[in-house]
Every structure is written in structure tokens, then in C-alpha cells.
Amino acid sequence: MISMNRTIVVVSLALIALSCSPSTRQAVVPRDPHSFARPEEVVVTHLHLDLTVSFERRQLSGTATLTIDNKTGAPQLLLDTRDMTIEAVTLLPEDKAATWSLGETVPLLGQRLAVDIAPTTKQVAIRYATSPNAAALQWLEPAQTSGKKHPFLFTQSQAILARTWVPCQDGPGVRMTYSARIQVPPDLLALMSASNPTVRSRTGLYEFRMDQPIPSYLLALAVGDIAFKPVGARSGVYAEPSVIEKASWELADTEKMIEAAEKLYGPYRWERYDIIVLPPSFPFGGMENPRLTFATPTILAGDRSLVSLVAHELAHSWSGNLVTNATWNDFWLNEGFTTYFENRIMEATEGRPYSEMLAQLSLQDLRATVAELGDTSAMTKLKLDLEGRDPDEGVSDIAYNKGALFLRHLEEKVGREVWDIFLRNWFDEHAFRSSTTEEFVTYLQKKLIKGNQKFEKELDIHAWIYESGLPTTLPVITSEEFKRVDGEVDQWKSGAPPKQLSVTGWTTHHWLHFLKALPDQLTIQQMVALDAAFGFTRSGNSEILALWLQKAVASDYRKADGALESFLTGQGRRKFLRPLYAELAKTPDGMARAKAIYAKARPSYHSVSANTIDGILGESK
Hints:
CATH architecture of the domain at 35-130 and 162-211: Sandwich
Radius of gyration: 24 Å
Number of helices: 19
Strand order of the largest sheet: 5-4-8-2-1-11-13
CATH topology of the domain at 35-130 and 162-211: Immunoglobulin-like
Shape: globular
Helix content: 25-40%
CATH class of the domain at 35-130 and 162-211: Mainly Beta
Mean pLDDT: 94
Number of strands: 21
Structural class: alpha+beta
CATH superfamily of the domain at 35-130 and 162-211: tricorn interacting facor f3 domain
């Protein structure tokens, strides 16, 4: 980690860089503990990929040509790689075979690729092939897809998995433009986080461009039997043909969300906003790959009740993609800002009562996470220290919900009008740059606090960012809708049969609050009565079903066993898998059941999910 003195220098230099062109400027950031690269010496400014996709070998092979800026005349270019075969390296324009070496394998980080370069070297071309077990790549057999006829490939580069399929400077503090030529089987469509086709090429060759500079974790590729349907002038949906109609109906309000976001914090700068609904093994709810959000099919509830996920991934087009956390220690700058922005989009499109339900659910989840981790745990701080640890460990309600509540706290202190101007200026002035927590604090002090020490004390910035647990200045959130739900919960606790409760007009969020308000463990009679009244075990809503199944496991409600196994083997979203396996693992019988189910399910999970469940069940793979 860097010293405080160096942090101050970094922030000062970053502020000076504000006047640079968005297409070329690189922020000066701290040394990234999760990367071998030294971008302060030599930085990659453009990537060109020329790759062939082989489903038979489960391999990407070809060439990555890196355009570099040797800012210091350094003799070496240092890159991140992991589990890939480097075949040859060539210097351009010299057209000369390079001297290169791979370092020792470091857990999580992979191997450093060091390439000797000359002061005149402008590009470095690397011929390579990925491993069949590359962690970012998930190769699906036809049986694992909706259509059952064609294989499917998708990538997940965040946080430090881009290095498993592209030799690169794999840290969020380095931004580059990119282009690509991707050869796939002629009966499949290829898509990337770039300009995209909407119809198949007869030859299976596709070309892509991303002219806005992005960090490596936003590199993305999907290949499969994919159809497209527009839902707006600059938005559309990709999905397997058997899913496309359902997906496009569910996501029909995407354009309305884009317009709401622009009214809040300025123009959308990525030209198009399309969404691909992936097969169910995708490990996250969504991934904000620019121009092409990757989304889980678990959001297709049939009633548009889970589309706040789209608002979240769309908001990343400002917070995350446009202004990016400089290192994974600053992860909250991506996710806290985005979760706050998501709620503002939902307030604009669905109304304040709706968004306040989302906010209260977030607060409930945050309190539960702090209780689980312990309120003195360093992992409950917004600013993290993840050196020597997998940055994936920073993905929790802390970054998302504590971060969002901090911004809501600031909004309430300064007033929404002032806050919105401030936040739009933050996005505009830091566009296409990576920023640190310290830079944000400096910006707050300069633009809002302006030397007012009393006001600074009221904002409680240090407690929110650098201290564990929840600060005393936590906003009070009261949902009038949830007061109605609480009334029905009280009726149930007083002995009213579930069938007599007044639940007409309840949305997904009402039901989630209802389930969260019930005791952790229920009697079998209570579970049977609730299930008979509301059909929870048969629910087609993934959020409701996942929460109900946790109650079922905790209460030993074995009538839900079939639904539990189907859910755990039928989708790979880590948000749902982790708490269910963790609940099962609390008892010897549950652990045995969990391991039996996992043995069937693990081959269909992405490595991101599998690694998490391995840890819960003590598996070694």
C-alpha cells in the first residue's frame, strides 16, 4: 500500500489532469496491489484482438496487439496473465521478435509477463492461447442452454479475470480503447462490450470497436445462438431465440430508464445501451459491460418487477464505467454510487413509494451483513485494504448499500438540488478516468464543505468511509408501503391464518419485506400454512423463491426439497447460491444434502460462483 504523503501527491496530480482530453487522459493512481503492471512507466492505450473461438478445444487463440505509451523510456512492458500459453511476442514497428519472460505463478494474480521493449516501440503483438479452464470463460454445452442445440460462451472479467483470456494491464486504474476481429462457428453470433451486430455473419467473422477508453474488467465476449430485438431508439435486447420475446417484453422500459438517468446526471456517453440475457449459469444479477449489459435470466419474473437490476447496470454507465474506482480497495466508488443512482432512477420512473421500498430493503440487507461480519470488522469499512486477498471478497452489501446510504446522507445534509449539481459535476469532471476514495473526499471538501469545519463534522465523512460498522448518522428510511406489510405480519403473529391476510396489490418488494419480517425459524405447521396460502415453493419469482427456500432450510421444511434442488442446479447466480448453501452447511444433515446437490450443480456454475461455494462447503477442486 502507498503512504499518506504519496496519496496526497496522487490526488493533486489527478486534479491537475482534469483538463486533459477524455479520450487520452490517464489518471495518476496508487500502485494496484492486484496487478503486476506499472502503468506509471509504460501504459497500454489501445488493444486489438484477433481471436478464433474453438468450442471443441474450449479455447481462444490468436493475437493481442497492445499500443503503448512509454512515458518514462522504461526498458520493459509488464503485463498480467494467468493460465494462458504465450507462443510469441513481436515488437512493432520494428517487426522484431521480442525477448520476454513469464514470472513465477502467484496465487490469484497469475504470472507477470515481462517484455523487453525499445524507446521506439509503439506496439507489442502477443500470440497466445487460453486454457480450457480459464476462470473468466464459461463454455456451455448445448444441454446447458435454453435452445439445447448450440453451445454458448460468455466471459466474466471482473474483478481480475480479464488476464485469463487477454494479456493486459489488468487493473481498474488503466483505461484503453479496443478493437477486435473474432472468428466463431458460422451458425453462431458473437457480441462484445463494443459496437455490435444484430444479425449473423455468414462466415462467422465479426469486427468490433470500442472508441471510449475502458478498464480491462469491462472487456466482454459472448458467443451463441443469439437473437436481437430492439426496445427503443438506442436500446435493445439479445437472448437465445426461445427467450427473446419474454426478455424483450420484460425489459421494454429500458429507454425510459435511460431518459430518466440522463435528466439526473447528464448525457449517456456510450451511444447504445443493449442487454443480453445470458443462460442461467451467469454468476451475477448483471454485469455493466459498456454498450452490452450482461444479465441473468432470473430477472425475467413475467411482471417487470425485478427490472431495478437494469436501472443498476444502466447507472454504471456513469458510476463505474465513466468514473471508475482506481483500485479494488475503492470498490465502493463504483457500487455505492451506482446503488444510490439506481434508486434515483427507480424513483423517477416508478415513484417515491416504490424507491423507498428498495431503500429500506437495502438497509435491512446492510444491517444483516454488518451483523454477520461483526461491527468491528475491517470488511465493513467503505475504504478497504485487499492487498494479498481476492478483490472479490470486497463484493458485499457494504460497498453497495453502505456506500449508497452515505451518498443519501450527503444529499439530505446539503439538499437534493445542491447535491444533484455536485454529483453531475463529479461525473463530468472525472469522465473516462479512474478515481480514488481520497480524490472524492478532496472533491467534497473543495466543492461542498469549502472550509466550513462545523458542516464537515456534520457530514461525518471519516466515520462513513474509514471506520467499521454503521455510523450514528445513518439515514432514517421509512416506507409507508412496508408499514402496511408490518401490519399484516402483526396480524399473523397474533394468530391470524395466512389466508386471511390482506395482500392484494403486493409487489415483489412487499413480499420480500414480509418474508424478512418473519422469524428466522418457523414451525412446520406455519410453513405449511404460509405455503398453502401464497404458493411460495412454486413461485416463479427468483427473489421471493430464494428467500423462502432459506426459511425452508432453516425450518427443516422438507416439502421444499425438490424446489431447493431444482433452484440450486437450475441457475448459478451467486447472490442466491451463497446464502442457501451457507444455511444448509449449518447442520451435518444439511451439509450432506448440500454436497450431494453441489456435486451435480458445480459443473454448470461459473468459476466465480464455484469458488465461493467451494469455500462454504470446504471443497477442494
